[in-house]
Specification:
heterotrimer, A alpha/beta, B mainly alpha, C mainly alpha, A: 2 domains, 8-stranded mixed sheet, 4-stranded antiparallel sheet, C: mainly alpha, MetI-like fold, 12 helices, about 70% helix
């Protein structure tokens, strides 16, 4: 087995407030291979974005990575000195944020922002960086890039700005792209184009992609594998067809049941009763137990660890091997 | 762009007209211009003659028109105290005030921006907290008390700096400057600090607040995610975005600095327009008061106009949308 | 600022008349007041200054402005704790044998009186103009608000000086101590009315379009009267904040005018006048004549400013 581009093991992220220490991420592990697209889904506050920020080292105080490790192509990148992690950001990991309207500095020409980023990470001259910036803009599908490069962000539409943001994220040929809800702020008609662009770039450059979203449709269409997060943990992770067609974890079942299909089956969409607990009030045992239809005593006491089920991995006591359950 | 500029210019002219009416009303109705010119033993006939020769019997509108046309040519009448044309008195004092105001503004901007940036980037350090405390005191202490305190420290106790006046000045044409002699520069230090201190605290607070605001924006987070150096983020991206509103405010404040120099000039006996104005108020020298009002208004209105137009140059977002700006 | 839990107003309190006091103690504003030690200190000091001013004639060892009580033999005595100090002159005396402490107490009274009266006048003028502008709208509104805009660009001190100069010119020799007092109040009022007018006008504009005004007019009730009953209580909070901050500004303005020789005369000095007088003796080494009035003025303004800052934050939960 080849070495994964990104390998996260038992990641923990805490936010220290005056009254309590809140654990936003609690023991998350996953890998992303070269050229693979991993989708991360879950409700708001499940820890999807925090996981992405932790990987790129942008958890600001009062938050901190309190445990576990993150490896990028075999080297540990958590707890790197600030200057070293900065060199990783943008060069080896590109990041795309949710809102393209606010991601670009309004006072700088987009070309200057791209050239600045390229020159931070490479030894290219100003003019070479400019040529590369034009190529990048062409690659992300901006028409007349040699003219548009001197435009200011406010002269671009939302979808075009997100293309610029993507160009910025890939300008140093990173091994990994983290896209944090890249389409949420965009018009529906533009969303598909942006997703297709990210997918194509990942394929063309062999880049690993971590796609954070709460849109199951996007996941089903784009990703190779999917991780379902709940309350700072991964409830289930596996190949996208299996997880979508045959979800194992009760929460994943509920989530997949909530996807409308085009088949026109006369079924009601399933809703998961209740809502995700706040960070300050995560129940003991399995965090999903108050909402779970299959809950039993053990769920209220003991936290389930991930268990392999074929290609899938699920954190649920229902799938414990029989003898251990008896023990 | 053109329509916007034109509207601003028209507004500025409107303001100047309004101020002109007030200045004229002061000039004409507050105190009798005749009794200020003549001596006690002038006969009633002579007084009437002077009245007529000054044009005080003409309709008010005619008089206003005449005052206005004269004001446009910088003719503001004759000072009661000095028996000299007000315009030459003002012209003589203008360089002192402008040099003081410019130096005070430069001091306020440089110190204010440095302190503001520092206290935004190193929020929890002792020095940052000290700056905050200084700014509260700077806003609470009246200017003249600060001046007195400085005089007591550096002139009376330590004897380092002169306590009054402009020092030696050099004539450059009609402009007299204190910037070219050592004594002139020394004399400038305390007045400039006194005058600039309030603006400095204002700018410092503004820079700090703006910078903290900017550092929280998405584009700064994205700049960090792109791996830019902290230096490039703080002093390139964040500072540039911070300085747009700060420079606007500082520019607009320049008019206030000139007006506030009234106090500083009195404390340090600085021979500028402000001191002239205070003496005019004390001695009820209405022509000087009216002329000073007009001069300061002109400076204010011009600065406002220039800043408004410059703002659209600095911020590219405004260039295409200026039509909507109100 | 702080994310601490703001105590929600308890609904458990019985609605008795005795419960009123307890409810008041429980409110957000009192809570935030008790949390900030600095604000409490500032409040105590402000209160102390007011008390000192009110009871000046009982506290002072002499009436510093009654020439009969001054003796030249007592002139230029240093403060009590220095080698040359003499009882009962705690803070020393000035050139004319005036006790500095007594002069400060009487001066404080004048400074506060001018400040408070100036703020009240500015508030009354601003509220009235704001109501008129907001209610009538149209030409009246734009004239008043244009004046406000223009005036806002000029520093208050300049306007106050001009008003003062014009008053002097009109009144000439008839300008005695009491009319100077009046002129100062008018000068301060004319310099500070704009903020009140803007606040009240905004509130009237909001209220004017509400249904109850139309309803009141339909049944023949006078709309202005009804609106007053709604507009004024709504704007009380912001007006209080403006008034507190303006009080500090008004005191500074009065002190500055007096310092510039365009305010209270030597025969009835405010703190600013005392500082101007004392400033002349600074070079002779008699620092106490200027230092103590200066400290009193600075302390007064600082504590009112702190109080105003707190009030602004407490009444504006968005800023918290």
């Amino acid at each position: 087995m080849t070495q994964p581009v990104l390998s996260v093991r038992n990641l923990e992220v805490e936010f220290v407030t005056r009254r309590a220490t809140l654990r936003a991420i609690n023991g998350v592990s996953f890998d992303i291979a070269k050229g693979e697209v991993l989708g991360v889904v879950g409700e708001s506050g499940a820890g999807k974005s925090v996981t992405g920020l932790a990987v790129i080292g942008l958890i600001d105080p009062p938050g901190r990575i309190s445990g576990g490790q993150i490896e990028l192509s075999g080297t540990r990148i958590d707890h790197l000195p600030p200057e070293d992690i900065r060199r990783v950001r943008g060069k080896r990991i590109g990041m795309i944020f949710q809102d393209p309207l606010t991601s670009l500095n309004p006072l700088y020409r987009i070309g200057d922002q791209i050239i600045e980023t390229i020159r931070t990470h490479t030894n290219l001259s100003e003019s070479a960086a400019r040529r590369r910036a034009i190529d990048l803009l062409a690659e992300v599908g901006i028409p007349a890039p040699e003219k548009r490069i001197d435009g200011y962000p406010h002269e671009f539409s939302g979808g075009m700005r997100q293309r610029v943001v993507i160009a910025l994220a890939i300008c140093a040929e990173p091994e990994l792209i983290i896209a944090d809800e890249p389409t949420t702020a965009l018009d529906v008609s533009v969303q598909a184009q942006i997703i297709a662009l990210i997918k194509r770039l990942g394929r063309d450059h062999g880049t690993a992609v971590m796609l954070v979203t709460h849109d199951m449709g996007v996941i089903a269409e784009t990703c190779d594998r999917v991780a379902v997060m709940y309350s700072g943990r991964i409830a289930e992770i596996g190949p996208v067809q299996e997880v979508v067609r045959n979800p194992l974890h009760p929460y994943a079942k509920g989530l997949m049941g909530a996807i409308p299909t085009l088949a026109g089956e006369d079924k009601r969409l399933v809703q998961i009763p209740g809502s995700m607990p706040r960070l300050s009030a995560i129940p003991q045992g399995c965090p999903f137990n108050p909402r779970c239809a299959f809950v039993f005593d053990r769920c209220r006491v003991e936290r389930p660890e991930p268990i392999r089920q074929g290609d899938q991995s699920v954190a649920c006591h229902l799938f414990e091997p029989a003898e251990e359950t008896a023990a | 762009m053109l329509a916007f500029t034109l509207r601003r210019v028209l507004q500025a002219i409107g303001v100047m007209l309004a101020v002109g009416v007030i200045a004229f009303a002061m000039f004409r109705f507050a105190g009798d211009p005749v009794s200020q010119i003549v001596s006690i033993d002038t006969s009633a006939a002579q007084r009437a003659e002077i009245r007529r020769s000054l044009g005080l019997d003409d309709p008010v509108l005619v008089q206003f028109g005449r005052y206005f046309i004269n004001a446009l040519q910088f003719k503001f009448g004759v000072s009661y105290q000095f028996r000299l044309p007000v315009s030459s008195l003002l012209a003589e004092r203008l360089p002192a005030t402008l040099e003081l105001a410019i130096c005070a503004t430069l001091f306020a901007m440089i110190a204010g921006i440095l302190m503001g940036v520092y206290s935004a980037l190193r929020r929890d350090t002792v020095l940052a907290k000290l700056f905050q405390a200084v700014s509260l005191i700077g806003i609470s202490l009246p200017t003249f008390l600060i001046g007195i305190l400085l005089i007591y420290l550096f002139a009376v106790t330590l004897g380092w700096l002169p306590s009054f006046g402009r020092g030696e000045v050099v004539k450059l044409g009609w402009w007299s400057t204190g910037l070219l002699t050592a004594s002139g520069l020394k004399a400038l230090i305390m007045p400039a600090i006194t005058l600039g201190l309030f603006q400095m605290t204002l700018i410092m607070r503004l820079v700090r607040a703006e910078m903290l605001e900017v550092l929280r924006t998405d584009y700064i987070r994205f700049a960090r995610a792109r791996g830019l150096t902290t230096r490039a983020i703080h002093f390139g991206h964040a500072l540039k975005n911070t300085l747009v509103p700060v420079i606007t405010v500082a520019g607009l404040q320049f008019g206030s600095v000139i007006a506030f120099s009234i106090i500083t000039e009195t404390v340090f006996q600085w021979p500028g327009m402000g001191l002239l104005f205070v003496q005019a108020v004390q001695n009820v020298d209405i022509p000087i008061m009216a002329a000073y009002l007009l001069m300061v208004s002109l400076i204010f209105v011009t600065i406002n106009l220039v800043v408004d137009i410059l703002y659209t140059v600095v911020d590219p977002r405004l260039r295409s949308t200026v039509g909507r700006a109100t | 600022m702080s994310d601490a839990v703001v105590p929600h107003r308890s609904e458990a309190h019985p609605q008795t008349s005795a419960g009123w006091f307890r409810r008041a103690l429980d409110s957000d504003i009192v809570y935030s007041f008790r949390r900030s030690r600095l604000t409490m200190v500032a409040a105590v000091i402000t209160l102390l200054f007011f008390l000192l001013a009110i009871f000046a004639s009982w506290l002072a060892v002499q009436n510093p402005f009654d020439p009969a009580q001054l003796q030249l033999i007592n002139s230029r005595i240093a403060p009590l704790w220095t080698a040359d100090g003499q009882s009962p002159f705690l803070l020393g005396t000035d050139e004319q044998g005036r006790d500095v402490l007594s002069a400060i107490l009487y001066g404080l009274r004048i400074s506060l009186a001018v400040g408070v009266a100036g703020v009240v006048f500015a508030g009354a003028l601003g509220i009235a103009l704001g109501l008129v502008a907001g209610y009538f709208g149209g030409v009246v509104d734009s004239v008043i608000m244009r004046i406000a805009d223009v005036q806002l660009t000029f520093p208050a001190i300049l306007i106050a000086l001009l008003v003062n100069g014009v008053a002097k010119s009109l009144l000439g020799n008839r300008l005695d101590e009491m009319s100077t007092f009046g002129v100062l109040i008018i000068a301060i009022g004319l310099s500070f009315w704009v903020q009140y007018a803007r606040t009240v006008r905004g509130s009237v504009m909001v209220e004017k379009n509400k249904d109850y005004v139309a309803a009141a007019q339909l049944i023949g009730l006078p709309a202005p009267k009804i609106m007053l009953r709604h507009v004024l209580p709504n704007t009380m909070g912001p007006i209080l904040v403006i008034a507190t901050i303006n009080l500090a500004l008004a005191i500074i303005t009065e002190a500055t005018l007096s310092f510039l020789g365009a305010g209270m005369p030597d025969t009835m000095p405010s703190l600013g006048t005392l500082i101007r007088i004392g400033n002349n003796y600074l070079f002779a080494g008699e620092w106490w004549i200027v230092a103590f009035p200066g400290i009193a003025l600075a302390g007064l303004i600082l504590s009112i400013n702190l109080l105003g800052d707190w009030l602004r934050d407490a009444l504006n939960p968005k800023l918290r």
